[in-house]
């Protein structure tokens, strides 16, 4: 078996808030394999968002070892972290984070911009990806012309367009009604079956229950 | 990220905030426009004066009492016609010497009157300076020696007094004394807003009698050739100092006058450009300010871009290009504004304006530089934003 997508060993993260040190993570170890479907659950303040940022290479641990895609993030500068995110991680956010004045197709193509892919190829790959999430008929729509479920599917297409090994979804159904939330989860599960690791951050037990395994966090530690 | 892509993103961002982009540009537009227009006015004025000084004729020496230092008080003239005769003897050719005594006078013809500069002169004036007659003839040597009351009118004065009628042979009065018009000059136009066509040439002797004086204000000599100007000037000054041991005299050439005027106008143009440059600077600060606001407003967008793989440099370049785009578009519009303003001033007012290439190049270069200088801080700030913090911003 190949190397796990993400390996965290005894990772901590401490924030310095104007001289007050706040420990958000207090020693977390976790492995995400290439085919994993993990749900991270916990109340707000439990450290699950912080863990999510670390797993997504948006942030670096204060101590401990974190390897993403086989690379130790402690050795990487901001530009290398950006490249790592671009190549390895796909993000799906609760509030979609789509560029408002940009069409679905160009939103999806955005990560490829930073990979230096030409415009024509970007647009072709973005269209293909939108087709895959069932939005082939929405290529030139702007976010405000689409429903919440459609916007989240655009965001998933954007996360997938670079061919990442891990999809990190932060409350992906949090802003959706149950029917569309169900559709989005179904899509994530299909993708997982196709070989992308999915890490879901949620406080919804029902959503978490569908994952292959659950990681419960409390006070900066994994409790089960 | 490819450069073409960065440009596209920058243009999109400016389009999204069209009004704000235009208002931000306005500062640069006005600054660049002011630089171009004011430098054009300074340059135009300088050129016009140079042309006029050169247009007086070549190889001229102007002799005046006193020192020709900037800041020196003007010296009352003690020169008389006897001195002029002495100078003519030094020069050896009466036709190369011109004198003047001038006074502002009200000139009347019938019920019409006009204010004009009365110039008491020798018959040699058209030989020494370049002056062309429109009608009639100029003064003769006999007119000068006998103090005959005859006058040659500038084009403006002739028009004011006689309209379209032929003034030759008609009577005018200067300071209540009757003169007969024997000629009129061709039109000269204006210089620095001063009408050069409102003048009356009369024999120097008649002018002295009218003004009740023996003095003349200054004299001019046309040297036979360029090489002899300096020697001739020294000889004339020496002859005059000998006759007036208490007075200094200066003999200056056109080049010297041009040099002094050029220096003064150069400084003036520089000062104008500097003042305009300040407004450009203020425009640059405006750009910086708006870019900072823009970075803050688009924090979420920056966070998202970083999350999907934008490096700090990619974000920095995007915002820097935006600032440069703002100022260079503003710069181009400003050049158009400056050129239009200069052309309007040139056409509609007596102030001449000449747009120079160097001022355009300078203005454009400075506006691009302003974009870079004032764009760097916001761009760095954007590039360094922590993606976690940026994504959390709502």
TrEMBL record, chain A:
SUPFAM superfamilies per UniProt: P-loop containing nucleoside triphosphate hydrolases
Domain ABC transporter: 6-223
Protein keywords: ATP-binding, Nucleotide-binding, Transport
Gene3D superfamilies listed in its UniProt record: P-loop containing nucleotide triphosphate hydrolases
Stretches assigned to coiled coil: none
InterPro entries (alphabetical): AAA+_ATPase (IPR003593), ABC_transporter-like_ATP-bd (IPR003439), ABC_transporter-like_CS (IPR017871), ABC_transpr_LolD-like (IPR015854), MacB-like_ATP-bd (IPR017911), P-loop_NTPase (IPR027417)
Cited SMART domains: AAA
A Gene Ontology cellular-component term: membrane protein complex
Keyword Nucleus: no
UniProt-recorded name of the protein: Macrolide ABC transporter ATP-binding protein
Automatic annotation (TrEMBL), chain B:
Domain of life of the source: Bacteria
Transmembrane segments: 21-42, 264-295, 316-345, 357-377
GO CC annotations, alphabetized: plasma membrane
Domain ABC3 transporter permease C-terminal stretches: 274-387
Entry annotated with the keyword Endoplasmic reticulum: no
GO molecular function: transmembrane transporter activity
Keywords of this entry: Cell membrane, Membrane, Transmembrane, Transmembrane helix
Compartment(s) of residence: Cell membrane
Membrane-protein topology: Multi-pass membrane protein
MacB-like periplasmic core domain: residues covered: 21-237
Pfam family, one: FtsX
Family: Belongs to the ABC-4 integral membrane protein family.
Protein name: ABC transporter permease
Organismal lineage: Bacteria, Bacillati, Actinomycetota, Actinomycetes, Micromonosporales
């Amino acid at each position: 078996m190949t190397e796990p997508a993400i390996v965290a060993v005894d990772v901590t993260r401490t924030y310095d808030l104007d001289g007050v040190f706040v420990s958000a993570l207090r020693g977390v170890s976790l492995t995400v394999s290439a085919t994993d479907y993990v749900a991270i659950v916990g109340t707000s303040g439990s450290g699950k968002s912080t863990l999510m940022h670390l797993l997504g290479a948006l942030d670096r641990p204060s101590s401990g070892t974190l390897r993403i895609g086989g690379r130790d993030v402690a050795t990487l500068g901001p530009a290398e972290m950006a490249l790592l995110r671009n190549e390895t991680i796909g993000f799906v956010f609760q509030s979609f984070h789509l560029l408002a004045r940009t069409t679905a197709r160009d939103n999806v193509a955005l990560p490829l911009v930073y990979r230096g892919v030409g415009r024509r190829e970007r647009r072709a790959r973005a269209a293909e990806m939108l087709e895959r999430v069932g939005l082939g008929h929405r290529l030139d729509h702007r976010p405000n012309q689409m429903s919440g479920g459609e916007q989240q599917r655009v965001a998933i297409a954007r996360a997938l367009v670079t061919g990442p090994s891990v999809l990190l979804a932060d409350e992906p159904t949090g802003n959706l009604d149950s029917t569309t939330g169900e559709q989005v989860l179904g899509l994530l599960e299909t993708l997982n079956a196709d070989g992308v690791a999915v890490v879901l951050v949620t406080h919804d037990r029902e959503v978490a229950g569908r994952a292959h395994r659950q990681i419960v966090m409390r006070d900066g530690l994994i409790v089960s | 990220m490819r450069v073409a892509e960065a440009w596209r993103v920058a243009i999109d961002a400016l389009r999204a905030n069209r009004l704000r982009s235009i208002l931000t540009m306005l500062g640069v537009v006005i600054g660049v426009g002011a630089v171009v227009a004011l430098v054009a006015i300074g340059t135009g004025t300088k050129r016009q004066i140079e042309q006029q000084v050169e247009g007086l004729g070549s190889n001229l020496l102007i002799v005046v009492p006193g020192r020709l230092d900037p800041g020196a008080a003007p010296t009352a003239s003690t020169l008389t016609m006897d001195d002029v005769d002495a100078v003519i003897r030094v020069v050896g050719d009466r036709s190369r010497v011109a004198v003047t005594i001038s006074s502002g006078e009200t000139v009347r013809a019938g019920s019409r009157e006009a204010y004009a500069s009365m110039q008491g002169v020798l018959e040699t004036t058209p030989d020494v300076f370049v002056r062309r007659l429109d009608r009639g003839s100029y003064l003769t040597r006999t007119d000068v020696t006998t103090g005959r009351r005859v006058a040659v009118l500038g084009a403006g004065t002739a028009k004011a007094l006689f309209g379209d009628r032929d003034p030759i042979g008609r009577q005018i009065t200067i300071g209540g004394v009757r003169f007969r018009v024997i000629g009129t000059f061709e039109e000269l136009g204006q210089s620095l807003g001063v009408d050069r066509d409102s003048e009356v040439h009369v024999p120097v002797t008649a002018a002295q009698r009218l003004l009740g004086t023996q003095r003349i204000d200054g004299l001019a000599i046309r040297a036979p050739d360029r090489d002899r100007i300096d020697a001739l000037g020294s000889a004339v000054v020496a002859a005059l100092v000998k006759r007036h041991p208490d007075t200094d005299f200066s003999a200056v050439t056109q080049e010297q006058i041009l040099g002094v005027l050029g220096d003064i106008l150069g400084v003036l143009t520089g000062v104008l450009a500097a003042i305009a440059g300040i407004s450009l600077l203020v425009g640059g600060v405006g750009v910086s300010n708006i870019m900072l606001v823009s970075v803050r407003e688009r924090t979420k967008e920056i966070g998202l871009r970083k999350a999907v793989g934008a490096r700090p440099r990619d974000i920095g370049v995007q915002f820097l290009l935006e600032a440069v785009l703002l100022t260079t578009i503003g710069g181009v519009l400003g050049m158009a504004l400056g050129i239009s303003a200069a052309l309007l001033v040139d056409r509609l007012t007596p102030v001449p304006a000449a747009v120079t290439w160097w001022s355009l190049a300078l203005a454009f270069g400075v506006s691009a530089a302003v974009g870079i200088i004032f764009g760097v801080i916001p761009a760095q700030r954007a590039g360094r934003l922590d993606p976690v913090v940026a994504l959390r911003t709502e």
